């Protein structure tokens, strides 16, 4: 069957990949991740849904990522910069070189598109 040209981002019936941040990056709590990687293309393009339980960890981006928050509340703080609270309905881009922390205050679910 050929690739679909219209792909719905839907987690129903899909098994998530489970994990969390590397232990050496955790700053507080015990965050757990669930990721439904719906699209994966040659050249390093990914799209899907990610969810995390409460906790705080260091983040360092080598990739470009578009995020749209579906539910929950998180605080993303850039080293030497502003801390931003994101919640349902917020959209943003994290560019390569972003360094800081991600703190999940309430279990957070987002849709994402990542380009390596």
UniProtKB/TrEMBL annotation:
SUPFAM superfamilies: RmlC-like cupins (SSF51182). This is Cupin domain-containing protein. It comes from Aquamicrobium soli. It comes from the Bacteria. InterPro entries: RmlC-like_jellyroll, RmlC_Cupin_sf, UGlyAH_Cupin_dom. Residues 40-112 form the (S)-ureidoglycine aminohydrolase cupin domain.
């Amino acid at each position: 069957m050929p690739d679909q040209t219209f792909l719905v981002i839907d987690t129903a019936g899909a098994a998530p990949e489970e994990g969390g941040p590397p232990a050496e990056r955790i700053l507080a709590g015990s965050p757990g991740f669930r990721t439904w990687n719906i699209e994966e293309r040659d050249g390093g393009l990914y799209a899907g849904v990610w969810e995390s339980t409460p906790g705080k960890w260091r983040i360092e981006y080598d990739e470009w990522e578009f995020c749209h928050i579906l539910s929950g509340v998180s605080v993303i703080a850039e080293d030497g910069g502003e801390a931003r609270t994101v919640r349902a309905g917020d959209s943003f881009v994290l560019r390569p070189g972003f360094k800081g922390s991600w703190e999940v205050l309430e279990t957070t679910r987002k849709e994402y598109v990542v380009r390596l």
